[in-house]
Amino acid sequence: MKVLLAPHGTRGDVQPTLALGIALRRRGHEVEVATPHDFAPWIESFGFTAHPISFNVSRTLRNSGDDSQKLGWQFRHLVEDLIPAQFESLPAICPDADIIVGAGLQFAGPSVAESRGVPYIAALYCPVAIPSRHHAPPTMKWQRAPAPVNSLVWWVGRHLTDAVLRRPVNLGRRSLGLPPLTRPIDHLFSRAAILAADPSLAPAPPDNTGVATTGAWILEPAGLLDADVEVFLQGGEPPVYVGFGSMVTGDPDHLTRQVVEAVERAGCRLLLGSGWTGLGSRDEGLPSWCKVIHSAPHHLLFPRVAAVAHHGGAGTTTTAARAGVPQIIVPHLLDQFYWAHRVHALGLGPKPLPIRRLNPERFAARLKTVLREPAYLDRAAKLGTEIRARDGCEAGAGIVEATAARFRKLSRGGQPFKQEDDEC
Prior knowledge:
Blueprint: E1 2-8, H1 11-26, E2 30-36, H2 40-44, E3 49-53, H3 57-64, H4 71-89, E4 99-104, H5 109-116, E5 120-124, H6 147-175, H7 184-188, E6 193-196, E7 212-214, H8 227-234, E8 240-243, H9 252-266, E9 270-273, E10 290-293, H10 298-301, E11 307-310, H11 314-323, E12 327-329, H12 336-345, H13 360-372, H14 374-388, H15 393-412
Parallel strand pairs: 1-2, 1-4, 2-3, 4-5, 5-6, 6-7, 8-9, 8-11, 9-10, 11-12
């Protein structure tokens, strides 16, 4: 079987599908990946054929600055840039694939699969992608609303999102010779979907009926930490790691100064993850107890630090939880507020600190709390042991195989392959 993986987004969207691809390849399947330009060389280093689509995620986010955290910018980006680019690129990629697995902000995948007559699976990495009375949609920052409010917000949000996406999606479908959609959001999950998240860290909502669940899809490639990072780690007490991954800011120098001042107040050492945010991009003047790293394998680094402060992406949250270390979440947008809520609710870290409220005083207070309260470390260590015992890749690969086999069986019998939509 030939599988086309089509994740779109940041590394947190791409890396889990790569882990799934490795599991599928172990089972004897041929796997190719349609990916934003940013990740093509990295994906090819694992021996996969990478097909870059006509889009560069990191450049787009950096050019947007702080605007990328605003819902209006996000909708304009989807309508004017992302959806047209996906419909332009994806139809020509791996036309002989037997199944397509999409993830992240993948809007063309279901239509391309429909035009080819092959099955499509949507991979989800956070429960808030599933409509439910038990949580708010990913566009909502408040995670403690009562069930009737959640249902109302989901209803309004789905109609609003359909209205925004209908024209660009239907223009793309027209180019494929497909009929227009009235409800494009429902079409994204109308065939099959998988929630690939750890069940202890991010369980499926109780009213989930149409989404298969596996554990998180974990990719931990072999390797070593850089020698200079190893020297720093061995040169004193375990530092805290602060990094905001693929998030961007219009003033990285100001944010760097805020973080460094907060860590100095907390009286600990600092590993500063530069990432797309650009923290510490000007190394001059940083104290000796601070080291800037531009990239490092988190699964090797996080077990060596005292705590991890980050933006709350699904991958970073899961990796820190697997490492058994406390976390401080600084959410910026979308599902990061869900992960921030879960980390606090599970006792893995203090109350989250949204990026718009970050200042040295507030950040230092949370650092002191997480470093001086043993209960955070105890709970993190216990849950880490539990999470490390699971990896959902094999279960995910099995679902991909079963979905393709069921599609072939129904196709031979002349029956349509369709999963009815579930209403919230």
